[in-house]
TrEMBL record, chain A:
NCBIfam families: MenG_MenH_UbiE, PRK00216.1-5. GO terms for molecular function: 2-methoxy-6-polyprenyl-1,4-benzoquinol methyltransferase activity. This is COQ5 protein. Methyltransferase required for the conversion of 2-decaprenyl-6-methoxy-1,4-benzoquinol (DDMQH2) to 2-decaprenyl-3-methyl-6-methoxy-1,4-benzoquinol (DMQH2). GO terms for biological process: methylation. InterPro entries: SAM-dependent_MTases_sf, UbiE/COQ5_MeTrFase, UbiE/COQ5_MeTrFase_CS. Keywords: Methyltransferase, S-adenosyl-L-methionine, Transferase, Ubiquinone biosynthesis. It comes from the Eukaryota. It comes from Erpornis zantholeuca. The lineage of its organism: Eukaryota, Metazoa, Chordata, Craniata, Vertebrata. Transmembrane segments: none annotated. Signal peptide: none annotated.
TrEMBL record, chain B:
The gene is Coq9. Residues 31-40 have a biased composition (Polar residues). It comes from Erpornis zantholeuca. Keywords: Lipid-binding, Mitochondrion, Transit peptide, Ubiquinone biosynthesis. Residues 74-104 form the Ubiquinone biosynthesis protein COQ9 HTH domain. This is Ubiquinone biosynthesis protein. One of its GO terms (biological process) is ubiquinone biosynthetic process.
Length: 285, 288
């Protein structure tokens, strides 16, 4: 299951060639880009925000972390990263000030001045996506929400990243790896661009093993989601693809094996919501 | 896709960290690393060669050419990271930040701290295990000196005081953050490991004190010494006297109490036996 050898691949439940698959997926995201966030909220009843928060918590980035968010399109992970690092910096600053009890007003003023210029503490996030429309929506969101520092947007393909080796501390791919045509190549690229000791994190829909829940989940997926897609975004087919692609994606253990094959160590996964979503983690050691 | 049926992760050489270590040979000088394997770790699966911390690396012949010379397991790498992290504890506490700084000094990304719990449990357990190992080595060395006749054998109360003091002194560089560590060690998740480390340390001390009992005394001795150790540790936490002299005096008193108590106990026992014998005699007399 999953990726077949030769030119035949799956696009949802259809069988297509590799070229066709790339083109179709490109079209899907061009069409959903503007309503992407709205649809996420309505399909998952807002729970996707919690999933992404959990991912950030698991990452627990220290100041000075360089993050590469692949298939990061509309910037959800990137913005959360910036918020997290900023609040950590503030905590550290407060702790430092508490230690030095007898500072003069001048010294306190200076320390605030100094740290204002790196409120992110040298942390940076690069958002990389293969689809121009998604990046456009992301940049607009950033402007609207006031994120500018430590953030950059790059057009690129997860199977062939436009970055040097050993560059990033953390690589994340949230709800994106499912749409990559050659997952093994994407994993190899992830390994390449990570620094030694760097961490790979993948947040993705996965397989529910509980039979009762699985039936309810299937019901919801196939009956409700495409309808929502038509009503809210005017696009039944894209959301049909989405639901089908979830079923075609390798389950937790298989993805874990693929990640290990790419060279990662200490590969593990955490199921969220009984396996509806899973976070896989690996280290380049 | 192939289905994997292995129980252990594949024993591959850690590529990235091996390359780093080749590049930074001068930095390797951790006397604890190779000897810390006994107490805390379960040995990693399979037959991994122990690495030498200094000097020329041995090459492994007959291994099929696959293994690089600096073959290191994940656990060994984690040990190195935790040992490196200890120097950042006074500043950052027993936290993921300290581990991240430690990883940085080894040339690894700060994200490597993600391998460990964010509450610093592994770091603290690692530290405790290392201290226990140091104590064992110290006691073994002293025992050798006694055996060779170069030193006097200490009386038992002095020996216990000396051992507990030596072990507690290892906490001094980290004393400010130690209360935090104690609370983490008491988390339900950590209790099995921390209890294990504590009991094996107490065992070691009694062993080197020459305890060879195989009866109920074995348990009482350990319980008593554990009590002495724990209470002294707590006293040390809020002791502000110069060089912790209040703590050592407290320790001296507790050990003296324990000695007195054991004398009392044996007195009570012999008195009890005498009373019982008297009663038996009286019973025999009456029955006649």
């Amino acid at each position: 299951r999953g990726l077949a050898a030769g030119p035949e691949m799956h696009f949802g439940f259809q069988t297509v060639t590799e070229e066709e698959r790339r083109e179709k997926i490109n079209q899907v995201f061009e069409s959903v880009a503007k309503k992407y966030d709205v649809m996420n909220d309505s399909m998952t009843l807002g729970i996707h925000r919690v999933w992404k928060d959990i991912l950030m918590h698991k990452m627990n980035p220290s100041p000075g972390t360089l993050l590469l968010d692949v298939a990061g399109g509309t910037g959800d992970i990137a913005f959360r990263f910036i918020n997290y690092v900023r609040s950590k910096q503030e905590h550290q600053l407060q702790r430092k000030l508490k230690h030095h009890q007898n500072l003069s007003w001048q010294e306190i003023f200076e320390s605030y001045q100094k740290d204002k210029f790196n409120s992110l503490g040298d942390s940076q996030v690069v958002v990389c996506d293969i689809n121009r429309e998604m990046l456009k929506v992301g940049k607009q969101k950033a402007q609207h929400l006031g994120y500018s520092e430590g953030l950059s947007w790059v057009l690129g393909n997860a199977e062939e990243l436009p970055f040097d080796n050993d560059k990033f501390d953390v690589y994340t791919i949230a709800f994106g790896i499912r749409n990559v045509t050659r997952i093994d190549l994407a994993l190899q690229e992830a390994y390449r661009v990570l620094k030694p000791g760097g961490r790979f994190l993948c947040l993705e829909f996965s397989h529910v093993s509980n039979p009762l829940l699985s039936r309810l989940y299937d019901l919801y997926s196939f009956q409700v989601i495409p309808v929502l897609g038509e009503v809210i975004a005017g696009d039944w087919k894209s959301y049909q693809y989405l639901v089908e692609s979830i079923r075609q994606f390798p389950p937790q253990e298989e993805l874990k094996a693929m990640i290990e094959d790419a060279g990662f160590f200490k590969v593990d996964y955490e199921n969220l919501n009984f396996g509806i979503v899973a976070i896989h983690s690996g280290f380049k050691l | 896709a192939a289905v994997r049926c292995q129980h252990y992760p594949p024993l591959r050489a850690l590529q990235a960290s091996a390359a780093l270590r080749r590049a930074s040979d001068e930095h390797k000088n951790e006397p604890w690393t190779s000897s810390s394997q006994q107490h805390f770790d379960s040995p990693p699966a399979g037959h991994q060669p122990e690495q030498e911390p200094q000097g020329p690396r041995p090459s492994y012949t007959g291994q099929g050419g696959q293994e690089s010379e600096d073959y290191e397991s994940e656990e060994q790498l984690q040990h190195r990271i935790l040992t490196a992290a200890l120097e950042f504890v006074p500043e950052h506490g027993w936290t993921a930040e300290a581990i991240a700084e430690g990883a940085k000094t080894l040339g690894l990304s700060v994200a490597a701290a993600g391998m460990f719990h964010s509450d610093g449990s592994e770091l603290i357990l690692h530290f405790v295990s290392e201290c226990n190992t140091k104590l064992s080595k110290l006691l073994e060395k002293e025992q050798k000196l006694v055996q060779l006749g170069e030193a006097e054998k200490k009386p038992i109360d002095e020996f216990l005081r000396h051992a507990v003091e030596a072990r507690l002194r290892m906490l001094i560089p980290y004393i400010e953050k130690w209360p935090q560590a104690l609370s983490v060690l008491l988390l339900p998740r950590n209790i099995p490991s921390s209890l294990n480390l504590l009991t094996s340390m107490i065992d070691d001390i009694w062993y080197y004190a020459g305890d060879q009992s195989t009866d109920f005394n074995w348990y009482t001795r350990r319980a008593v010494l554990t009590g002495i150790y724990n209470t002294t540790e707590l006293v040390m936490m809020q002791d502000s006297s110069p060089d912790f002299e209040d703590t050592w005096r407290f320790l001296e008193n507790r050990v003296a109490d324990a000695m007195a108590m054991s004398n009392t106990a044996s007195q009570v026992q012999s008195t009890g036996e005498a009373v019982v014998q008297g009663l038996m005699g009286a019973a025999v007399t009456v029955s006649n």
